[in-house]
C-alpha cells in the first residue's frame, strides 16, 4: 500500500457482496485506511416478497441479476430450497465441509425474483455504498 499512498491515494474501499464471515473478517483487518462495504448489511425489507434478507442465489440476488444481466439468468433451470439458519450454521461457519441436507446451491426463492425488484435493490445498494463512502471520508 506504500506505493499507492505515494501516488496520492489516502483511503481504499472494498465493496463486497460475499457475506461469508471469514471473508469479511479477513478484509476488515487489512489497514485502518481500508474500508469494507458489505452489501449484505443493507435492510431489504419491503422489497422482497418471500425473504427479508439477502441469501444465496435467492429472490434478491436473482432479481439483481435479472435487472443487470437478464440474458444470463436461466429461469427455466431455477429450483428453490430454503434451509433454516440453525441447519446451515455449521456449514456457514466452516465447522463442517459437507453441505447440509437439502442444500441445492440456493437459499431462498429465486422464482419470486423480478427485474423490477432488482432495479430497486441496485439503487438501494448504490445509495448505501455512497452513504458508507461519505461517512468514512467525513471521519477523516
What does this structure look like?
It is a single chain. This protein is mainly α and 140 residues long. The chain has one domain (42-139). The protein contains 5 helices and 2 strands. It has a two-stranded parallel ribbon with strand order 1-2. The protein is globular. The mean pLDDT is 86.
What would a concise description of this structure say?
With 140 residues, the chain is mainly alpha-helical.
Keywords:
140 residues; mainly alpha; two-stranded parallel ribbon; 5 helices; 7% strand
Number of structurally distinct domains: 1
The order of strands across the largest sheet is 1-2
Major sheet: size, sense and barrel closure? 2 strands, parallel
**N-C termini distance:** 18 Å
Model regions low in confidence, pLDDT < 50 over at least 5 residues: none
Mean pLDDT value: 86
Oligomer: single chain
Q: How many beta strands in the DSSP annotation?
A: 2
> Can you count the helices?
5
Beta-strand proportion: 5-15%
Return the string of H and E elements.
HEHEHHH
By helix and strand content, what is the structural category? Answer: mainly alpha
Percent of residues in helices comes to 40-55%
Radius of gyration: 17 Å
Overall spatial form: globular
How is the topology of this model organized?
Blueprint: H1 2-6, E1 12-16, H2 21-28, E2 34-38, H3 59-68, H4 85-92, H5 115-139
Parallel strand pairs: 1-2
Amino acid at each position: 500500500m506504500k506505493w499507492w499512498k505515494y501516488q496520492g491515494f489516502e483511503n481504499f474501499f472494498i465493496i463486497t457482496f460475499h457475506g461469508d464471515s471469514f471473508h469479511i473478517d479477513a478484509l476488515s483487518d487489512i489497514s485502518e485506511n481500508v474500508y469494507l462495504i458489505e452489501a449484505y448489511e443493507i435492510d431489504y425489507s419491503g422489497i422482497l416478497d418471500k425473504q427479508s434478507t439477502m441469501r444465496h442465489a435467492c429472490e434478491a440476488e436473482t432479481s439483481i441479476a435479472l435487472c443487470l444481466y437478464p440474458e444470463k439468468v436461466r429461469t427455466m433451470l431455477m429450483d428453490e430450497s430454503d434451509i433454516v439458519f440453525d441447519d446451515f450454521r455449521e456449514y456457514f461457519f466452516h465447522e463442517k465441509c459437507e453441505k447440509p441436507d437439502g442444500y441445492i446451491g440456493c437459499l431462498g426463492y429465486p422464482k419470486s425474483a423480478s427485474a423490477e425488484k432488482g432495479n430497486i435493490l441496485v439503487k438501494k445498494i448504490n445509495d448505501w455504498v455512497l452513504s458508507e463512502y461519505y461517512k468514512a471520508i467525513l471521519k477523516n
